[in-house]
Amino acid sequence: MSTIEKALAKQKEATQKKQAESTVISTTSEQKLSSQNSLTAKATNTKTVSIDAEQTNKSEITLNGERLTERGFIYSSDSAHHIQEEFRHIKRKLLNNAFGPASKTLKHSNLIMVSSSNPNEGKTFISINLALSIALEQDKTVLLVDADVLRPSLHRELEFESKQGLLEYLLAEVDSLSEVIYNTNIPNLKLIPAGKPHHLTNELLASERMVELAQELAVRYSDRLVIFDCPPILGVTETPVLSDLVGQAVVVVEESRTKIDDVKRAVSQLNEDIAIGCVMNKTIRSKKDVYGYYGYGYGKKHQ
After folding, report:
1. Relative to the CA of 150, which of 144, 207, 210, 263 has its CA 20 to 30 Å away?
2. pLDDT tens across the length of the chain (303 residues)
3. Helix 81-99 and helix 123-135: axis angle, to 10°?
4. How far is the C-alpha of 37 from the C-alpha of 29, rounded, in Å?
């Protein structure tokens, strides 16, 4: 074989070797790409299953609309017009404070506590109707929390079985807050029940974990309104502590029963930097008004 022929043969051999290496690299790349696609598909499927499972396992609290309407609650647009109108005025002020210009001057403006000077003045009725009224808004979600852990009544008033809730979260018996937030058959309304009674019930309201709860609700759910149905202010030392965690407070006053001095003492115990309003409760407008929950006042305490 001549020198030229040897050179041509060597060049041909080198070309064939290069083509073979290129084929191997291409095949390996295709295999890697196929493997990556397979892993991505598996991850996507796993994520979908996880989300679906979470949605499926999330129990829903079903509220009886007819029963609520009979008892004076605002279940739908068919509820008594005068009750809707009164709560429309009240909620408008709360919403403006929570999401309007005033929200810049309030810490945790979307967190609202509802309380009263003394027990049995109708604060739970007001809490529920405020939540139901806000839930009728097209673009607002409301979370109603039963924080009256010593005398929980949210489950009784709304007629659903008691479930794990706020106390289980405060005792760290659940892994996350989402485990005690329940959907309802009203699309824009979610609930956190009080949970199972505990011997440290009231002390837990003043715990560091309660502070963390308020922070999470204010930041993570900043686009929703959170209403806490709280214990009465007078005689319960933890209730004024809760006012440090919220941006607004509604103090329920029962007409012809609540003493003005009690209202003044109650309000004086709340954080002076929050917006505080009063709702006059159980007033009688006419002989036909069997519920008579009307009248409100609103403004910052120091104004």
Report:
1. 263
2. 554 455 445 555 655 555 555 444 444 444 444 444 544 444 444 433 333 333 433 589 999 999 998 888 998 766 666 788 889 999 999 999 999 999 999 999 999 999 999 999 999 999 999 999 999 887 889 999 999 998 999 999 999 998 999 999 999 999 999 999 999 999 999 999 999 988 888 889 999 999 999 999 999 889 999 999 999 999 999 999 999 999 999 999 998 899 999 999 999 999 999 999 999 987 765 444 434 343 344 444 444
3. 80
4. 12
Q: Is 74 helix (H, G, I), strand (E, B) or coil?
A: coil
Pair 234, 265: CB distance under 8 Å: yes
Identify which of 253, 207, 218, 260 has the alpha carbon closest to the alpha carbon of residue 232.
253
How long, in residues, is the chain? Answer: 303
Please state, in angstroms and rounded to a whole number, the distance separating the CA atoms of residues 161 and 156: 8
Q: What is the DSSP letter of 177?
A: G
Shortest CA distance to 242 belongs to which of 251, 253, 233? 233
Residue closest to 202 by CA, chosen among 231, 234, 161, 168: 231
pTM of the complete model: 0.76
Q: How many CA atoms lie within 13 A of 214 on its CB side?
A: 24
Structure tokens at 236: 């319960």
CB atoms within 10 A of CB 161: 7
3-state helix/strand/coil string of 204-256: HHCCHHHHHHHHHHHHHCCCCEEEEECCCCCCCCHHHHHCCCCCEEEEEEECC
